[in-house]
């Protein structure tokens, strides 16, 4: 569990840097185009803000909770999810009001701590007005908390948890809209074969659960696709001299080096490989996604390719518009996970809406909401397309490719 | 087909090995005199790397490196780093080891481990405060490389490491064998109380030992940062452990043993890292290079517990 939490913390932290570069790219685009429900002011405490329009809300209160770290060093990511979810909820308040329901956000702070997450979860399931949870940020918190949600039949939609175990435990309440950790490896290998056109590969990993796990999946996919594997070697984290393994690489001269590991080792590896005259591709997972990668690798970082489960919403015109609206309305910076929080909330609200309709306009039960959310199919969110499979994984979840230029990483596209 | 990389592997192994060797000298000198393992020595090496890198970074930002001969720049950096780490070594001895000199042998060992944690976190703290990160990238003074046809390319910086390490080792040997202070050090190593009866100031000799050992370690730190480019406050741990191993392999307390042991360990590591995978058909890859190198060490010590040069007791510092 600790390990899983570690990985998800890492990917979350790394994703921030992507988000930051994303922000920089959009700062000069116009924010003038107002669409339908976008213009309303942010409501920081929706639970205390009354029903302004005067429409009847006799159907009752429906609370959707968020569970993310709102304090501590991960609070910027946790707050982004909460704010994204809040933004989605505020846009649909009127829609629910017409049916006679008052939807409210019920934000919880899990402090990135499994113990707090679980006790919050207990509190949520004991509150009959709570119909769904957007969360968590950390897989290590989501997994124990989901035990409670399962007891209370409370549907959870995770915007950010990538740990494989989360949905493998067979809990019906657990869903996620992002990709799983084990999607990264195969997609990375496919991208290397199909887009980069490599025929031979050399895999290096850092002997950790994350690095070796990723490398094993890449290896499997390479074997399936007929990419010739010239070597599969491990290195020791914390060392600075990788010439021993790189001499093997230069003897075999592969088309690509795939590195399963993190940027401190990845940066040194690519630098030393280039010093030894290696000319091929260098690729890795989201462990390479950090601005420190550029500092460590120096000029050698140029052309390094990596995969990430977090995408950049500002890559399309429509996404850019959305991001501008978001920033203007919420007055918060756009993080990678903002849009994932937004989409997660909409998935839940759609489920609630379905359940209300199925229940003849009356307040549904949690089981009905759960059923409706679980059946989500081809839901087009702002950024993600969501179809849940039996386990609650999103079958449309994408893995994204990024590439380093001299001084930043740029979004390349979906890995296919 | 693997043999074409052999020259390259040897060069890499030698570069690494000579660095082990110089750091191993620091362990072996202190052991020779005090029969105590200074586990903070790896951290002194690390401090040297940081001091050197900071000197280069700061003078680079001031524009002082522009047009300066890289050899002069490296020389000045080495001097500054050696003076500071030498002083640090002496200070540590004074504060953390000397008061414990009469205590059971495990006590100064624990003290050394404490000092080593202290130094790691002190450097991490200061760097994080000053630069907001504790991974530092050293400006590279030497970028060229010498090509030996298609056989191997030797990066200039690696060559400089080897040459400077040899220079340091030769000067140390000369110092120990030819000068008055060197003779005093050997005397203290053999018998402290008799040496003190011969009007040798034992405290001063021990201080000198720490001064020399630490400044050599610090200088190696600078070379390490130059050679590999990236440093962090934890580089001293693994390298210190391996240098200590090299000292034991050569026979701890013996200078020549430390040098040979260091070079041997570096070569073993490099060779096993490059060839073990292909030779065993991938069953044992490069990740087992340390296992292999240390198995050799165990074998050597099984048959020769005093280390390769352990018999030459007379010659211990």
UniProtKB/TrEMBL annotation, chain A:
SUPFAM superfamilies: Periplasmic binding protein-like I. This is Branched chain amino acid ABC transporter substrate-binding protein. Transmembrane segments: none annotated. Keywords: Amino-acid transport, Signal, Transport. Residues 1-24 form the signal peptide. Residues 26-58 are annotated as: Disordered. Pfam families: Peripla_BP_6. Residues 62-407 form the Leucine-binding protein domain. Belongs to the leucine-binding protein family. GO terms for biological process: amino acid transport. PANTHER family: AMINO ACID BINDING PROTEIN (PTHR47151:SF2), LEU/ILE/VAL-BINDING ABC TRANSPORTER SUBUNIT (PTHR47151).
């Amino acid at each position: 569990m600790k390990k899983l939490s570690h990985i998800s913390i890492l990917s979350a932290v790394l994703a921030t840097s992507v988000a930051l570069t994303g922000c920089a790219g959009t700062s000069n685009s116009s924010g003038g185009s107002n669409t339908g429900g976008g213009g309303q002011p942010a409501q920081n405490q929706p639970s205390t803000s009354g029903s302004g329009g005067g429409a009847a809300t006799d159907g009752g209160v429906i609370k959707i909770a968020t569970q993310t770290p709102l304090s501590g060093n991960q609070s910027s990511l946790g707050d982004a999810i909460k704010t994204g979810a809040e933004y989605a909820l505020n846009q649909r308040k009127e829609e629910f009001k017409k049916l006679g329901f008052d939807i409210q956000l019920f934000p919880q702070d899990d402090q990135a701590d499994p113990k707090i997450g679980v006790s919050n979860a207990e509190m949520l399931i004991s509150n009959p007005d709570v119909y769904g949870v957007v969360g968590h940020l950390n897989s290590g918190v989501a997994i124990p908390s989901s035990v409670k949600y399962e007891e209370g039949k409370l549907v959870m939609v995770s915007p950010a948890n990538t740990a494989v175990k989360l949905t493998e435990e067979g809990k019906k309440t657990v869903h996620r809209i992002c990709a799983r950790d084990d999607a990264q490896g195969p997609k990375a290998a496919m991208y290397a074969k199909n887009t980069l056109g490599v025929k031979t590969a050399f895999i290096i990993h850092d002997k950790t659960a994350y690095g070796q796990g990723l490398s094993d999946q890449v290896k499997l996919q390479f074997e399936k696709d007929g990419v010739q594997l010239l070597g599969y070697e491990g290195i020791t984290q914390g060392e600075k001299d990788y010439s021993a393994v790189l001499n093997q690489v230069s003897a075999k001269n592969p088309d690509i080096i795939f590195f399963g590991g993190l940027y401190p080792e990845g940066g040194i590896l690519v630098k030393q490989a280039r010093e030894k005259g290696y000319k091929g591709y260098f690729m890795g997972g989201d462990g390479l996604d950090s601005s420190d990668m550029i500092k460590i690798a120096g000029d050698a970082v140029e052309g390094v390719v990596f995969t990430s489960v977090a995408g950049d919403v500002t890559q399309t015109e429509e996404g850019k518009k959305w991001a501008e609206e978001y920033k203007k309305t919420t007055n918060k910076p756009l993080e990678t996970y903002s849009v994932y929080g937004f989409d997660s909330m909409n998935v839940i609200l759609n489920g609630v809406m379905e359940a209300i309709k199925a229940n003849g306009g009356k307040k549904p039960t949690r089981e009905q909401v759960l059923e409706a959310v679980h059946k989500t199919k081809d839901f087009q969110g702002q950024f993600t397309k969501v179809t849940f499979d039996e386990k609650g994984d999103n079958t449309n979840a994408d893995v994204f490719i990024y590439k380093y230029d001299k001084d930043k990483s740029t979004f390349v596209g979906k890995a296919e | 087909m693997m043999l074409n990389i052999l020259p390259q592997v040897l060069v890499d192994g030698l570069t690494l090995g000579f660095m082990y060797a110089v750091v191993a000298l620091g362990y072996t000198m202190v052991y020779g005199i005090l029969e105590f393992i200074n586990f903070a020595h790896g951290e002194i090496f690390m401090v040297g790397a940081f001091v050197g890198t900071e000197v280069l970074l700061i003078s680079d930002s001031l524009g002082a490196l522009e047009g300066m001969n890289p050899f002069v720049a490296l020389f000045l950096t080495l001097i500054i780093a050696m003076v500071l780490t030498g002083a640090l070594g002496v200070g540590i001895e004074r504060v953390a080891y000397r008061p414990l000199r009469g205590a059971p042998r495990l006590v100064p060992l624990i003290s050394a481990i404490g000092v080593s944690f202290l130094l790691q976190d002190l450097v991490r703290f200061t760097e994080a405060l000053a630069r907001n990160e504790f991974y530092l990238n050293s400006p590279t003074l030497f970028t060229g490389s010498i090509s030996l046809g298609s056989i191997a390319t030797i990066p200039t910086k690696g060559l400089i490491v080897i040459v400077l390490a040899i220079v340091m080792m030769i000067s140390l040997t000369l110092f120990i064998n030819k000068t008055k202070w060197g003779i005093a050090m050997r005397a203290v190593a053999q018998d402290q109380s008799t040496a003190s009866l011969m009007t040798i100031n034992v405290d001063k000799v021990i201080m000198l030992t720490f001064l020399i050992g630490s400044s050599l370690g610090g200088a190696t730190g600078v070379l390490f940062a130059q050679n590999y480019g990236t440093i962090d406050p934890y580089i001293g741990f693994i390298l210190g452990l391996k240098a200590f191993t090299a000292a034991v392999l050569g026979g701890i307390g013996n200078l020549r043993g430390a040098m040979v042991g260091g070079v041997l360990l570096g070569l073993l590591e490099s060779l096993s890292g490059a060839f073990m995978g292909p030779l065993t058909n991938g069953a044992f890859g490069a990740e087992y290079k340390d296992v292999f190198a240390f198995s050799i060490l165990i074998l050597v010590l099984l048959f020769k517990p005093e280390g390769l040069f352990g018999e030459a007791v007379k010659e211990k510092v």
